[in-house]
Design a protein that fits this description.
By secondary structure, the chain is of the alpha/beta class. Helices cover 41% and strands 17% of the residues. It has 14 helices and 12 strands. The protein has a 7-stranded mixed β-sheet, sandwiched between helices. A 3-stranded antiparallel β-sheet has the order 9-10-12, with helices on one face. A two-stranded parallel ribbon has the order 1-11. Strand 5, helix 7 and strand 6 form a beta-alpha-beta unit. Helix 1 packs across helix 11. The longest helix is centred in the C-terminal third of the chain and has 16 residues. The relative contact order is 0.17. The chain binds pyridoxal-5'-phosphate. The site of pyridoxal-5'-phosphate has 11 residues, from helix 3.
């Protein structure tokens, strides 16, 4: 039975060479600051992306949370996209655990938070209001690469108003590969950046938060408090270093396969492809047909993301090859009528 899992790029499994790198990694107790492999990962990403320091954390959610908690205090507020991960998909952690109020902003089609909407949302210094402290952006957002001229303008605006700027760069390297702009340039306007190793890069676990020495020192305290202080985590950092060494450039293949998948699906009667961005394809399927489609795909060994978003999402990654794309297109083609949107 084939198993082609397009639900997310988080489902990747470490290959032989990555596991070999994990097996031989020198390790120590990272809570004591003694894991050389974790330190090598943090130093390497900090240098590559142009920051003073880095912090290895168990997940992207914790990375964003410790960033928000380090930028903001209790009673502060951050400006964030209404459909941003840090607002919508992290369990309300900033509010629940950080006592930080989100100010969600309706995003434009390209994922940007319009500057005029930001200007209206920022609060004056008045006891009626939470203190607006931070602007949080996301790149890529639902696969879309945020326009860099927008990013620069938004960060300049935020800094001119005394706000810090955080990037949820879970898929920053997808943005860099797709745009041809170095990740370091994409990261430059920000005071902190979070990068996931466990998405398209293909490592099993972990994210790294980058920022100044002061910010990362604060984030380290929050990480411990939140239960994210890990011990011999060098075995995980070794997988991340392997991914950075060998699995960044290949993200281009995921993007090409997503393009091929979108083109194939567009050729099928009744499927409406809403868009393809980097390694993601979104299609529109009538709610009444979703369960039948899911069953049909599962019978053929294909998993897609259904029900979690208003649309069906298909994500390419390192475990999806050309043959898998061909198979998936065939399986969609044989979905028995009525049409997808009937
Ligand atoms: C996956 C993701 C995260 C969170 O990562 P986890 O490791 O799943 O907690 C944050 N932001 C974005 C944009 C993501 O896609």
């Amino acid at each position: 039975m084939v198993e082609i899992d397009l639900r997310s790029d988080t489902v990747t499994r470490p290959g032989e060479a990555m596991r070999a790198a994990m097996a031989v990694a020198p390790v120590g107790d990272d809570v004591y600051g003694e894991d050389p492999t974790v330190q090598r990962l943090e130093r390497r990403l900090a240098d590559e992306l142009g920051f003073a320091a880095g912090l290895f954390v168990p997940s992207g959610t914790q990375s964003n949370l410790v960033a928000l908690m380090s930028h903001c205090r209790r009673g502060d507020e951050y400006l964030v996209g209404m459909e941003a991960h840090t607002y919508k998909y992290e369990g309300g952690g900033a509010a629940v655990l950080g006592s930080i109020q989100p100010q969600p902003i309706v995003q434009a089609e390209d994922g940007s938070l319009p500057l005029d909407a930001l200007a209206k949302a920022i609060k004056p210094d008045d006891p009626h209001f939470a203190r607006t402290r931070l602007l949080a952006l996301e790149n890529t957002w639902h696969g879309r690469v945020l326009p860099q001229d927008y990013v620069v303008a938004a960060a300049d605006w935020a800094h001119s108003r005394g706000l810090a700027v955080h990037l949820d760069g879970a898929r920053l390297f997808n943005a860099a590969i797709a745009s041809g702009v170095p990740a370091r340039t994409l990261a430059a306007p920000f005071d902190s950046v979070s990068v996931c190793l466990s998405k398209g890069l293909g490592a099993p676990v972990g994210s790294v938060l980058l920022g100044s020495e002061t910010l990362i020192g604060q984030a380290r305290r929050w990480r411990k408090m939140l239960g994210g202080g890990m011990r011999q985590s060098g075995v995980l950092a070794a997988a991340a270093i392997y991914a950075l060494d060998h699995q960044v450039a290949r993200l281009a293949e995921d993007h090409t396969r997503a393009e091929r998948l979108a083109a194939g699906l567009r050729g099928i009667d009744g499927i409406r492809v809403l868009g393809q961005f980097t390694n993601m394809v979104f299609i529109d399927v009538a709610a009444a047909r979703l369960r039948a489609l899911d069953a049909h795909l599962r019978n053929a060994g294909v998993r897609v993301s259904i029900g979690y978003l208003p649309t069906v999402r298909l994500v390419t990654h390192i475990d999806i090859d050309d043959a898998a794309i061909t198979h998936v297109i065939d399986v969609f083609r044989t979905f028995p009528g009525p049409a997808f949107n009937a």
